[in-house]
Design brief:
1 helix; alpha+beta; two-stranded antiparallel sheet
Length: 92
């Protein structure tokens, strides 16, 4: 709920700068969303490749980019955390 509002007259330069920064923020948000989706898809597949679930395993059901639904076994369903050299992964 907005409690206060004011009319502000921007110069042409200020308006252009504000619009430019707004567009930059929208593009950065779009890029972040895409990067997060790509990372999520990657680690789901990585976990499935290295830790296949047993038939009665508990876990998180996800849909891969191929459209296939799979179960990511517990505790790997909350993401991965790598060591700085990317040689060892831990559940997130």
């Amino acid at each position: 709920m907005v409690k206060e509002a004011a009319t502000v007259e921007l110069s042409a330069e200020e308006r252009q700068k504000a619009e430019s920064l707004h567009l930059e923020m929208l593009e950065a948000k779009r890029a972040l969303d895409q990067a997060e989706k790509s990372w999520s898809d990657y680690w789901h597949q990585l976990v499935l490749d290295h830790f296949p679930p047993s038939p009665n395993a508990n876990g998180v059901i996800v849909t891969l980019p191929s459209g296939k639904s799979v179960t990511i076994p517990y505790p790997w369903g909350n993401g991965l955390v790598f060591t700085p050299d990317f040689r060892v992964a831990f559940p997130g």
